[in-house]
Amino acid sequence: MALSMRLSRGGSKKRPYYRIVIADARSPRDGRFIEKIGTYNPLLAKDSPERIKLDADRAKHWLSVGAQPTDRVARFLDVAGVKERAARNNPNKGKPGEKATERAEERAEKLKAAEEAAAEAAAAKAPAADSNEEAEAVMAAEVEAATEEPTAEAEAVAEATAEETPAVEG
User: Fold this and answer.
1) pLDDT at residue 42 above 60?
2) Taking the model in full, what pTM does it have?
């Protein structure tokens, strides 16, 4: 029989209250259990001593018998000093999903096409404005302004592409 050390939900709608129980892993979450070893009330303040009540001796006993704690109960056991819990790391958590990367690529392509069109328009207007030096100065200033100050959308695309490229570890 596989034993599980887990939370069993009680309380009313929108007012959760949990019992920390030892149960057969195959039994339902709120169903039959072997022993209640504590309680957890998430509605109380985090520094309240009433938030988590745990019988540490019974928890040690059930761990020695082979009960497997769920992740949340393992956190409680770590805080109580009963069982050490290794910290986990998810490096992919902050990365954008497939759709977000596709949208970022589309925005980058549109931005690049708009810049190319602006450059072509500037090149087409430049030969006609050879006699007028002021027009050339204005166009040069516009091109510089466009290249110096990227829009918020261009910055978002640049950040997204920077996150996609893997960092070289040395």
Assistant:
1) yes
2) 0.53
